[in-house]
Write a structure and sequence with these properties.
With about 240 residues, the chain is α/β, with parallel strands linked by helices. It has one domain: Aldolase class I (TIM Barrel), CATH 3.20.20. It has eleven helices and eight strands. It has an eight-stranded parallel barrel with strand order 1-2-3-4-5-6-7-8, surrounded by six helices. Helix 5 runs parallel beside helix 6 and helix 6 packs parallel to helix 8. It is globular and about 65 Å long. It starts with 9 loop residues before the first strand and ends with a helix. The mean pLDDT is about 95.
């Protein structure tokens, strides 16, 4: 099987914990970072602008995506323009629709025409991929984030969908496909196999990279030892 160094898919760290983001940024195999309002809320961030600008004082050399959080497209545009002004490495995350399921395509087209680097997010269907690609500028760098993990949560195999999306993005040469919301380390290798350019990975999955290629007999033994040691530590008796 492939080793991590053999992969062509770019690994982006996904998170909002400052210490974790800086730790991942320092790793050579992490080529970009993403975050979102939900992750920020979970770690207790109160001042969105202050947090983003603080992170950007250190992370200047790798792409970093920050998301708008309005439900109104005019306000989304205002937020997008401000976020884009924070740094040359900043990509603005725009949800594929608002909460009323009104599509973002007109806004994406307008922002792309102004050379704003975008990350269109929360995509789950190929029709959404098609319409986003048609709205993007072919010469402005952008990301198209398809939530493969959430697709898998519905019982659907995301691999054929992601493979089809790879082909669709050929119409927009400056755009890259992101395999978003992975559920397991295997997803990194699946993304690589189909030619997906980027995968966003949380720290808990990244910690499993040391297991890549690990001998399965040894892994089996490790698991048996874990069960035994935990039973002893718990003082179980029958």
């Amino acid at each position: 099987m492939k080793k991590v160094n053999d992969l062509t898919v770019k690994i982006f760290a996904d998170g909002a914990d400052k210490a974790g983001m800086l730790e991942m940024h320092a790793k050579p195999f992490i080529q970009g970072l993403t975050t979102n309002p939900t992750l920020m809320k979970k770690v207790g961030i109160k001042d969105y602008r202050a947090f983003c600008k603080d992170i950007l004082t250190t992370i200047k050399d790798k792409p970093l995506s920050f998301e708008v959080f309005s439900d109104d497209f005019a306000e989304m545009e205002r937020q997008a323009m401000e976020i884009a002004s924070w740094g040359k490495n900043v990509y603005v995350k725009i949800p594929v629709t608002n909460t009323k399921q009104e599509t973002c395509y007109a806004l994406v087209k307008k922002l792309a025409s102004q050379k704003v680097k975008l990350n269109v997010t929360a995509i789950m269907t190929l029709s959404q991929v098609r319409d986003v690609v048609e709205s993007l500028s072919p010469d402005v760098p952008s990301y198209v984030s398809v939530f493969a993990g959430r697709i898998a949560d519905t019982g659907r195999d995301p691999v054929p969908i992601m493979a089809a999306a790879v082909k669709m993005l050929k119409l927009s040469p400056a755009s890259e496909l992101i395999w978003a919301s992975p559920r397991e380390l295997l997803n990194i290798f699946q993304a690589d196999d189909i030619g997906c350019q980027v995968i966003t990975v949380t720290n808990d999955i990244l910690k499993k990279l040391s297991l890549v290629g690990y001998d399965l007999d040894e892994y089996s033994l490790d698991t048996v030892k874990m069960f035994y040691n935990d039973a002893v530590a718990a003082g179980f008796k029958i």
